[in-house]
What we know:
Layout: H1 3-29, H2 37-49, H3 53-56, E1 64-67, E2 74-79, E3 86-92, H4 93-108, H5 115-123, H6 146-172, H7 175-179, H8 199-215, H9 223-231, H10 250-265
Parallel strand pairs: 1-3
Antiparallel strand pairs: 2-3
Amino acid sequence: xxxxxxxxxxxxxxxxxxxxxxxxxxxxxxxxxxxxxxxxxxxxxxxxxxxxxxxxxxxxxxxxxxxxxxxxxxxxxxxxxxxxxxxxxxxxxxxxxxxxxxxxxxxxxxxxxxxxxxxxxxxxxxxxxxxxxxxxxxxxxxxxxxxxxxxxxxxxxxxxxxxxxxxxxxxxxxxxxxxxxxxxxxxxxxxxxxxxxxxxxxxxxxxxxxxxxxxxxxxxxxxxxxxxxxxxxxxxxxxxxxxxxxxxxxxxxxxxxxxxxxxxxxxxxx
Length: 270
């Protein structure tokens, strides 16, 4: 048998043996999100570029850092560098899991009413001490159509854009430095800034963060259910304070977000 023919047959044999594995890999990709911490880092750069020039002087470069932690959080820190420290918004892998699941659960609710509320009740039982549980029936093919993935992607960007925008505002408004000493205890455990803020400080960072998100192309429709889900929990886990103050009311948050977006699209821009 000629060498060329032997080579061809060898390649065909490898391809035939590999086909089941490739098919299995492609099938598993059908149940994966397009969004991950790299998505958040990319969006963080867009948010930084969308800030006013004077705020870009305070928050500069790549503002997002990722931490390998199952606890869902978004927190603040400054990285010592020369000639000046670099403000960072630190997100956890648990945060990415949380946003992906909430964004997806809300999308699924469009074809299976009540799904989102059931997921909220399940989420309320999460301590954050281990990886979040997957969504109920998460291998149902109806939940992974292209339309469903696109809806999830849009919701994800809305949530991340708003939350990162709010936390960038904490840096350029001076909230981080004001409360810095209270954000890490003697054991090195991080505390949420939200429960230290005055109502005025929370409202200002909320408004500016949403405006920043809108400038970066993120509307509010996806983040509204994210804020709403915390109020619908029978009892909020401690980690929820990384995203919203314990005493914040959803109706007030919704009112603020809707006004900022309405003003933005009507041309009333700062």
